[in-house]
Design a protein that fits this description.
Arc Repressor Mutant, subunit A; Beta Polymerase, domain 2; alpha+beta; four-stranded mixed beta sheet
């Protein structure tokens, strides 16, 4: 499984810190921002940042009172690290970055299925559902580089709010399965989905 492979190669803190840098090469991060993003203790994050900077995997630059860190794309192993993270533990982070670049605002977007359940294998497709007014073409355009880089099949479904509500009212089996399963949100959240899924007849009561 992808997550297990990532965990076997790197410790928890190093894996999270590396993922932030190698999957976001165009951004710099200061220490407190990095601690918030990886949700790990200050001491552990600080140690990993120091080690990565010493190894030349990230660069260090002072900007006023802050020190900013950035992935060193000229490092000999940067390409290999990005390939590892884009295919293992950082896969969904890479998808999130791709969706953030979408030319149209995303109303609600989440992954469901094996990846959300933590049961994905190398050949598992990624199932993405987008609900709102975002055109399918825009979603495909912003995720095309993700599919090319990761060699992962991305199953994209785009539904308008009206279409989604209609499928709920008609008791669509696929929608019932999605609503009853785990989800990883990239836009919107469980609260918004719960409101959107309310039909007035308690069809999905107990699922949220």
């Amino acid at each position: 499984m992808n997550e297990v492979l990532g965990e076997s190669l790197f410790g928890k803190v190093r894996r999270k810190v590396l993922a932030v840098f190698v999957l976001n090469p165009d951004r710099s991060f200061y220490l407190l921002e990095l601690i918030r993003l990886v949700d790990c203790g200050r001491g552990g994050v600080q140690r990993e940042v120091s080690r990565l900077a010493s190894a030349g995997i990230i660069t260090r630059q002072r900007a006023g009172n802050q020190v900013h860190y950035r992935a060193n794309i000229n490092n000999l192993i940067y390409g290999e690290l990005r390939a590892i993270f884009s295919k293992t533990t950082g896969l969904l982070d890479l998808l999130r970055s791709s969706l953030n670049s979408c030319s149209e605002p995303l109303g609600m977007a989440f992954v469901y299925g094996d990846y959300a359940e933590g049961k994905a294998f190398d050949n598992s497709p990624i199932n993405l559902l987008v609900i709102g007014d975002t055109p399918l073409k825009a979603v495909k355009e912003c995720t095309s580089s993700f599919s090319e880089e990761t060699s992962r099949k991305l199953n994209i479904t785009v539904l308008s709010t009206g279409e989604f509500k209609r499928l709920i009212l008609t008791g669509d089996r696929k929608v019932r399965e999605i609503l009853g399963a785990k989800r990883i949100f990239f836009a919107g959240g469980e609260k918004e989905l719960s409101v959107l899924s309310t039909t007035g007849d308690d069809l999905f009561s107990g699922l949220f």
